Amino acid sequence: MSSTTPTPPPSSLTERRKSETRMEIARAAAGLFVRHGLRATRAEDIAQAAGIAPRTFYRYFATKEEAVAPLYAAGAQRWVEAVRAAPADAGVLHALEQGVRHTLTPGVGVSASSWEWVRTLLRLAEATPSLRRVWAEVCQASERLLAEVLAERVTRVGVPGTDGVPGAAGAPGTAGDSEVSAEGLDNVAAEPEPAPTATPHPPSTGTPHPPPTATPHPPPTATPHPPPTATPHPPPIATPELRFAAAVASAAVRAALEAWAAGDGPVDGPDGPAELALRNLTALRDFPWGP
Fold first, then answer.
1. Taking a C-beta distance cutoff of 8 angstroms, is the pair 165, 28 a contact?
2. Which of 6, 94, 235, 287: CA 20 to 30 A from 127?
3. Which CATH number fits domain 13-157+236-284: 3.40.50.80, 3.90.180.10, 1.10.357.10, 3.40.190.120?
């Protein structure tokens, strides 16, 4: 997995510790980049600020520019997860708008004091090709995840309910079961035939033999079978149309962030990243959502 790819939540203690170390290195790198600039910061400086050895730094990141990728990726992950967490009955465009409000509103996704760091990091990415490549890779990975989330939402909307599914023939409470019951009633109502009578024979006068004794056999033991496991369903595949929609939505958010970072305006208000992104998303208002 690339160091710029948004990572899923770690499941084991070791993975959690590695994820925490990556984020500590990322914060140290961002602080140095903001205070001293990218050019004046070395990988050894980042390692010292993070309290690790230089060789440990290179176990996590190949370059100093990649060290801030977890911060970029964390923001991208929040945006995608906010879209996923939108109410199930919300339309896709409304889910995208909710994701924007949750992620880009000051004090909700990112604290108001951290937005100046965001501005500086985005400006550095614009001015530095190596850091711009890291930012672009994170945005591309986020776009792929967003396409999967949109496919999940569209697929859920298209799944019919189960209330109208008819029962199978022969199942309890169905027509098949009533036919079997009627046949059984007919058998019970029929007049039974008399049982045959056996012809008596005189008892034999031969030498008596003891009755045979049955050899006891242990009861058969049933072979245990594991319970059947449900076959996992593959994740829904994003159609070319949904991939295009995810690309447009991701570009709407990225362009809003970059336009805001290029100026000196406040993070809130009509020219803040949230309002800019919401206006950009109107390009998808008439998009033909569908499975």
1. no
2. 6
3. 1.10.357.10
